[in-house]
Write a structure and sequence with these properties.
mainly alpha
């Protein structure tokens, strides 16, 4: 296995875990210390381990973001809270510097999920059918769910906009839980509001969270010249 990994690295086809930048780490001590300094809570570092401080950061942000969206839903009498917002919020604050948590990936990913979910309903003639939780699941519903997730996964890769929570969004639609076009638009608006909150909170905490998609300059010591140029172009939009 190690020989295979080394071979891939030499050909520019893959990288070992040691070559991935620390920005992808789930718990980066430097990030935690930076947040503590920015929030003037450095004294907590002497009393508690970094993981507990990170957990507190996650707890506060998770509560604030969903509470704000729920408040908007209550005032506007519009469903601004739906299940796949939860995993998106976790990504935005647990791995904020991961490419999948960038505003671009988040907005595009959910948009792809919405479109693919509704297209699957149209193709199977289920746009007016009751949701799967209220009726027996038949073959058409199974095909709609499978097709929506397959389309979402494939298009996210082709468009370089991978965002795993979008898989939940497309199933919410293809299973008939949300089908009206107005509410589908509300889903994307809610995602946009969550992204704005992610930008504000992460930047206030001192994190270098991108406003759209962060350009990364990779350095491959042994990769062919052509592959470096190609991957740099890909990462400019990831």
């Amino acid at each position: 296995m190690s020989g295979e990994l080394n071979l891939n690295s030499e050909k520019g086809l893959g990288r070992t875990s040691a070559e991935y930048p620390s920005r992808l780490a789930l718990l980066d001590p430097e990030v935690v210390r930076g947040i503590a300094r920015r929030l003037r809570l450095v004294h907590l570092l002497d009393r508690f381990p970094e993981r507990r401080i990170w957990a507190l950061f996650m707890f506060i942000n998770g509560f604030i973001t969903i509470a704000i969206l729920a408040g908007v839903a209550m005032v506007s009498h519009t469903p601004f809270v739906f299940p796949s917002l939860g995993p998106t919020a976790i990504l935005l604050f647990y791995t904020p510097l991961s490419p999948t948590a960038s505003p671009r990936h988040t907005l595009y990913g959910h948009a792809i999920g919405i479109v693919c979910g509704y297209v699957s309903l149209l193709l199977l003639g289920l746009q007016h059918a009751p949701p799967a939780i209220e009726s027996n699941v038949d073959m058409r519903r199974i095909m709609a769910a499978a097709l929506s997730l397959a389309l979402t996964a494939g298009l996210m890769i082709l468009l370089k906009a991978a965002h795993p929570p979008a898989g939940a969004t497309t199933l919410i639609i293809s299973l008939g839980i949300v089908t009206r076009p107005f509410y589908l638009a509300i889903i994307e608006v809610a995602v946009a509001l969550l992204v704005v909150q992610g930008i504000v909170i992460n930047r206030l905490a001192g994190l270098d969270y991108p406003l759209w998609a962060k350009r990364v300059k990779p350095s491959y010591a042994s990769a062919p010249a052509g592959s470096v140029a190609e991957e740099t172009e890909d990462q400019a939009v990831n």
